Amino acid sequence: MQRDDDDPWMHPHENLITGEVLEKSIRFLAGCAILAPSGHNTQPWLFASGPNWLDVIADRTRALAVVDPDDRELTISCGAAVGTFETAARRLSLQTSVARCPDPGFPDHLAQITVEDGPPPDELEVTMFDAIARRRTDRSAYFLEELPDGLKCDCRKIADPLGVNVEFFSDGSGLKTIADLVAEGDRIQFEDPDFRHELASWVHSSRRGSRDGMSGASFGLPDILAPAARFVIRTFDLGENIAAADAKKILAGSPTLALLSSTSDTVEDWLDTGRALARMLLLLTARGFTASYLNQPIEIATLRSELRQAAGATTQPQILLRIGRSERPPPPTMRRALSDVMITT
């Protein structure tokens, strides 16, 4: 029988606790962290908790060997779980400190978050907490309403302390060049049968009890037709069609693109990119915006260098987002229960 704290999307509000024993608060915050975004919705994290800390451990059984051979995106996803935890902690008047890669002899131990009492949250911190259960990855076309300059500035302020640079693109030749790189990434990836098989393996139906992966709806099919979506993805090279659709979506339905980059390309950089990504997405959600990913040119080494050049960046591209407002947010994606990701040490 499922416990109350195992309903992930209801968890932040239905189970909000204040003034509880710290260890119980940490378990609550872990329940918030599992709502973080992850590549293919693999949710590649495990948690272990103590009296005043939470360990974040990479679950490499959920790695994407083809699209993410270095576990870069896996680590960013775990960093996003850390960033979501940090954001939620402020709602409980808690301060956090994060030790990255605290155990050199155990590389899967990506972070330890320590919590202690802090000041009450301010209004922005409350609204960002409220956004945790409302954040979605929205792949639909957006209204052509550019991101306000003030919000761009706030996104940079969130990312900068973590060493993450955020650049925005909304018009001009840069946007067209990036759209072309995304389309080329689509073509290259879908030409690879191994890529198609890996992608298909993560298309799951929630109606059949799955709690991870992507719904068939992500590919324009009803959730119940996920098996058909898997067959189509595995069998046919859809690269040209997807490339054309993505290019059109960028140029006609994406008022703003955002590139998150870091000064170097270490595990620590990837973790901090994920932390910044989570905070930025929650800020955007709190302000009524949504986002989705265009990471194809970052996942392919040759295109990554071209993207870096097109963006005029001296840093390492890590995440490419499209940002805007949509007509209707999509339903929440599936999540594993908290009991499935909590382990004992």
Q: Could you please describe the fold and organization of this structure?
A:
This protein has 345 residues and is of the alpha+beta class. The protein has two domains: 4-136 and 332-341, NADH Oxidase; 149-191 and 237-324, NADH Oxidase, CATH 3.40.109.10. It is built from 13 helices and eight strands. The strands form two sheets. A four-stranded antiparallel β-sheet has the order 1-2-4-3, with helices on one face. Strands 5-6-8-7 form a four-stranded antiparallel β-sheet, sandwiched between helices. Strand 1 and strand 2 (53-58) form a beta hairpin. The chain is globular. Residues 1-5 have low confidence and may be disordered.
**Backbone shape:** globular
Helix content: 40-55%
N/C terminus separation: 24 Å
Low-pLDDT sequence parts:
1-5
In CATH, the topology of the largest domain is named NADH Oxidase
Radius of gyration: 19 Å
| Count of separate DSSP helical elements | 13
CATH classification class of the largest domain: Alpha Beta
Strand order of the main beta sheet, please?
1-2-4-3
* CATH architecture level-2 label of the largest domain: 3-Layer(aba) Sandwich
Structural category is alpha+beta
Strand elements, count: 8
Largest sheet: 4 strands, antiparallel
Overall pLDDT score: 89
H/E element order: HHEEHEEHHEHHHHEHEHHEH
- Count up the domains: 2
Q: In percent terms, what proportion of residues is strand?
A: 15-25%
Question: What would you say about this model in short?
Answer:
The chain is of the alpha+beta class.
Question: What tags apply to this protein structure?
Answer:
345 residues; disordered N terminus; four-stranded antiparallel sheet; 2 domains; globular; NADH Oxidase; single chain; 8 strands; alpha+beta
